[in-house]
Write a structure and sequence with these properties.
By secondary structure, the protein is mostly helical. It contains 12 helices and no strands.
């Protein structure tokens, strides 16, 4: 007899997350649209930035040092004559790629730990959550600063340090989400029909439990990017002359009075990226939560 099959549950809304996000729901404000446009532009710059750069971002030209914004150098030049615009465009790929790696690894670890805690029984839950409590007891930037310093200065050290310190928050969130979903009627129905535990977890529990996690990862883009830039600024992240935005600010901070542009433009890039992704995360959160949509519409 052919075993009964159960289609992947879509949860109470009856639709998967991508369809809910793309479906019309309420009104997007002008701020939402601008934020989405800026975030999309930053992603495109990260992909195509090196092709758009008008100059070599690492080419030293001392006679052009600390020249202000002009027709040849729109964002001016730094203390060694390097074109700031070209370095900002290159830095978009460095900064965003490092941020995406940290969030992807932290999400993967957090999802595995949170799922095990929610489904593995009381003893497993207690052990894993106490480990998470230890990780959450100190701000991630403090732990990352110590780990990055121990691993040696460099962007790779900063990324590894953040991957090892950022996941407890995701684990806590996933544990809560999975516990909320595991007793739902459609999950009980699939379990009654004899669906195996791995299939039950990956086809029914996780897809409906992780909708909120997608929103959280978007919100965390700004936080992770700021921490990576901060680590570079204090000297344990990306090192000068890297085109990473935090390292650019660190390398030009001494010339703030006579070369403000070398600090302001990388800082604006960080600010625009962080604020836009934060607003996009809020927009996704509202669209993903019918109660918020009704309250704000």
């Amino acid at each position: 007899m052919k075993p009964a099959t159960v289609p992947m549950a879509k949860g109470p809304a009856g639709r998967s997350l991508p369809r809910r996000l793309l479906a019309p729901a309420g009104r997007s404000t002008v701020v939402d649209k601008v934020a989405i446009g800026i975030a999309a532009a930053m992603v495109l710059i990260a992909v195509a930035g090196p092709l758009l750069a008008p100059h070599d971002p690492y080419a030293v030209n001392l006679p052009q040092a600390l020249h202000g914004p002009s027709g040849e150098h729109w964002f001016g030049t730094d203390a060694t004559g390097r074109d700031i615009l070209s370095r900002v465009l290159h830095g978009a790929r460095v900064s965003l790629l490092a941020t995406v790696i940290v969030i992807a690894v932290a999400t993967l670890i957090g999802t595995l730990v949170g799922t095990l805690a929610a489904l593995g029984g009381r003893a497993v839950d207690e052990v894993l959550m106490r480990i998470c409590d230890i990780g959450l007891s100190l701000p991630p930037i403090i732990l990352a600063l110590g780990l990055a310093a121990a691993l040696g200065p460099g962007l790779r050290s900063a990324v590894i340090a953040l991957c090892l310190t950022w996941w407890p928050g995701y684990a806590r969130l996933v544990r809560t989400l999975v516990r909320d979903v595991r007793d739902a009627e459609y999950v009980e129905g699939a379990r009654t029909l004899g669906v195996s535990t791995p299939r039950l977890v990956f086809r029914h529990v996780l897809p409906n439990a992780l909708n909120t996690l997608y929103v959280q990862t978007t919100l965390d883009v700004s936080a992770v990017m700021l921490v990576i830039s901060g680590l570079s600024f204090v000297g344990v992240g990306a090192q000068v002359p890297s085109a990473e935005w935090g390292a650019m600010i660190s390398g030009s901070a001494a010339n703030l009075t006579n070369g403000w542009w070398a600090v302001v433009f990388p800082g604006l890039a960080i600010m625009l990226t962080a604020v836009s992704f934060n607003l996009v995360g809020d927009w996704l959160r509202v669209r993903n939560d019918p109660t918020l949509r009704g309250r704000l519409s």
